[in-house]
Design brief:
Helix 5 packs parallel to helix 6 and helix 8 runs antiparallel to helix 11. The protein has one domain: TIM Barrel (Alpha-Beta Barrel). It has 343 residues and is α/β, with parallel strands linked by helices. It is globular and about 60 Å long. The strands form two sheets. An eight-stranded parallel sheet has the order 9-8-7-6-5-4-3-10. Strand 4, helix 2 and strand 5 form a beta-alpha-beta unit. It contains 13 helices and ten strands.
């Protein structure tokens, strides 16, 4: 495992992140204690140091187990957790982006994780009730208190993230260094605005669901029960003809280059740029071992083109409009070929 610099910071994180939403059985979809420890050990055995969790994952069990797993070598690990999601269903201030919930949630996470500090705190989801000023000032206070080292934001519109980071720069507050988003061969809509925005601000990007909720592993290529298709839709991944065709192409490329479909899907993500750090999740030991082997996979350019074409999306307005030859001519006239554009 090699290490990448996290966004514009000097923080060193593994080139793959271990997601731990599956650590715990409270949601009837995760792994028990022994299996979770084996998954953790398989990741750290390769030198992995970047661990992702959240206050709500398996009702707090994920954080509790992680606190135990990292206790003997706390300073080696870059521990990321999140706040926003509810801890108490009937308490209106035990959820959301606002300062009261932020401070309450962080204090509880510190207790469950058995640590004095969180390396990276994510705003889990944007709630559209709290001002960017309140969020960014609260996060900056946590950094100044030493309880949090870096901050990031997950599942939010690009214009919100841009507003928050611009505000932080103006006020001298801590800015978001990372962006966590859904991104995979079957979910490329982040390419419209979120990824260009992250590049502009020099943010690291940690994609979740990099295997498209399992679709890209090929396990559904020959069909899927209706109830499973419904569950996938609830995760925002559609089991439809388009995504089945993409998964089939992934399997074909995997066969051609001697890899597994999961490894190809992860390698495609990794080859989107040095700032991309996929989050790996697993319920079984063999799953995490399969995913970790993507570190040895490089997809040749010809096969990257095949995958890109199979999964290509329309960027929509104004992106497609601004790329029209007539529009470019209207903007630049005869000077276009004389300008050296920024990459």
């Amino acid at each position: 495992m090699l290490f990448k610099l996290f966004g514009k910071t000097g923080l060193r994180v593994s080139e793959l992140c271990l997601g731990t939403m599956t650590f715990g059985t409270e949601w009837n979809t995760g792994a028990d204690y022994e299996t979770s420890k084996k998954i953790f050990d398989a990741y750290t055995h390769l030198g992995g140091n970047f661990i992702d969790t959240a206050n709500r994952y398996t009702e707090g069990t994920s954080e509790k187990w992680l606190g135990e797993f990292i206790a003997s070598d706390r300073d080696y690990f870059v521990l990321a957790t999140k706040y926003t999601l509810h801890d108490q269903r009937d308490n209106p201030n035990a959820n959301g982006n606002h300062r009261k919930n932020m401070m309450r949630s962080v204090e509880n996470s510190l207790k469950r994780l058995r640590t004095d500090f969180i390396d990276l705190l994510w705003v889990h989801m944007w709630d559209f009730t709290t001002s960017p000023e309140e969020v960014m000032r609260g996060l900056d206070d946590l950094v100044r208190q030493g309880k949090v080292h870096y901050i990031g934001i997950s599942d939010a519109p690009a214009w919100i993230v841009a507003q928050c980071n611009t505000l932080a720069d103006l006020r001298g507050w801590t800015a978001f260094a990372g962006l966590q988003i859904e991104y995979s061969l079957v979910q490329r809509s982040a390419e419209r605005d979120l990824l260009p925005m992250a590049k502009h601000f020099g943010m690291a990007v940690t994609p979740w669901a990099p295997l498209g909720a399992g679709i890209l592993t090929g396990k559904y290529n020959n069909g899927i029960p209706t109830e499973q298709a419904v569950r996938l839709s609830e995760k925002s991944i559609k089991y439809n003809a388009r995504n089945r065709a993409i998964a089939q192409k992934v399997s074909e490329v995997a066969t051609a280059i001697g890899a597994t479909p999961a490894q190809v899907a992860l390698a495609w993500l990794r080859q989107q740029g040095e700032h991309i750090i996929p989050i790996l999740g697993a319920r079984r030991l063999e799953q995490i071992r399969d995913c970790l082997a993507c570190l040895q996979v490089h997809i040749p350019e010809e096969y990257m083109a095949v995958l890109d074409e199979a999964s290509r999306i329309e960027l929509g307005f104004p992106h497609d409009f601004l790329q029209l030859p007539t529009v470019k001519d209207a903007i630049f006239a005869d000077t276009k070929d004389k300008i050296i554009f920024r990459k």
